[in-house]
Each structure stands twice: as C-alpha cells, then as structure tokens.
Amino acid sequence: MILGFVIVVTLLKYPFFEYGFRYANSTQTSIIDGYKKLGKPAL
Questions:
Q1: The pLDDT value given to residue 19
Q2: Helices in the chain by DSSP H: which ranges?
Q3: DSSP class of residue 11?
Q4: Residue 34 CB coordination number (10 Å)
Q5: How far apart are CA 39 and CA 25, in angstroms?
C-alpha cells in the first residue's frame, strides 16, 4: 500500500517540477522570486 502511494506521489510531482522550470526560464527569475511575488499565503 505504501509503495503504491510513493509511486503515485512521484508521478504527480513531475508536472510541478516541469512548470517551475518553465516559469524560471520564461521570466528569467528564480522560483523563489516567484513565491515572493505571491506572498506568504502561497506558501
């Protein structure tokens, strides 16, 4: 059961890593700067 959970979480996190990479490349800033723009509620 826990192995299935680990596999699902691993598959679901990939789009978020991909989006973060694309965001950083398109804005020429870091992901941390993007979170700063959103403010503390985003964290």
A1: 87
A2: 2-27, 31-38
A3: H
A4: 14
A5: 21
